[in-house]
Design brief:
The chain is α/β, with parallel strands linked by helices. The protein has a nine-stranded mixed beta sheet with strand order 3-4-5-2-6-7-1-8-11, with helices on both faces. Helix 6 links the parallel strand 6 and strand 7.
Amino acid sequence: MPDSSNSGLNSNNIDWLIGYLSRQEYVRLLGFTPFPWQDAILNSTSKRIVINAARQAGKSTITSADPCWTAKYADKSLSIVLAPSESQSQDDMEKVQGFVALDRTYPEYAPAATHIKTANGSKIRVVPARQTARGKSKPNIVILDEASQITDIIYTEVVLPMFTDNDGRLIMLSTPYGKQGFFWDTFCNLEPDDPWERYEVRSPWQPVQTPNGLDLVPYMDGDEKAYQEERAKHGIRAWFSPRHSNYKEQLRLLWRMGIRKYKQEFCCEFVETEQSVFSYQEIEGMFKGKRQEVKKEPVRRSGVEYSLLEA
């Protein structure tokens, strides 16, 4: 919990107190109504969070509230948002500034292209994930937006050193981009004494091939509870994305981008990249001395049998 010293807390400032006690209530005070999965992330006290979410699910928006909350309630705090490109960092800064602008009790602040500095000595930095971002000492929170597009060398040489003797918070969020890189490795593979809290937010639809071409069917018959129970077996908290419920809209996207891209962008699947000559399973099989057989099993949805397309 942030330090409330020198914060100006008093019995008349009820909104300040409500926001201080809960990130969830803080964003609600700003007029933002979170989805259930966003509520879960806002309420989390974990120091390590990894979010695998569909494109346009709302992951960047909700995580942008965290540095705003931290800067307001923790005097002299440092929050850092790293993005894979200049344009993405600009988009993230706009989201941060949007939350700050809605807060009528926010400390006075000086905005700049890459940072916000508040009157209580806090700073929010939003910059591209480059070597020039290194050297920041003991940030309270670091957010890696579109982490699958950030190189491993930035993660190991820039980000991880920031947490040397530092109990700060690290959040990484992204849609998948192949079975490669630190984002895939963190989400899919447990570490010794694993500290990560994992979230998955996918389309409620699954692409299938029918006699008439590509189509979408409800994933796990549309049973979100069954989906959550299945993912919980792997230590993952999961939800269907409310923003992707429109069948016709999602079908148009599937037709436009194809099966591989739709699975990656909206189904949270770590499919092989188009540049891959061998699949991850094939490479793994080489080291094991044999190639794994891939079984194509038909699936039944609402009494109709389909064949799932291979990525």
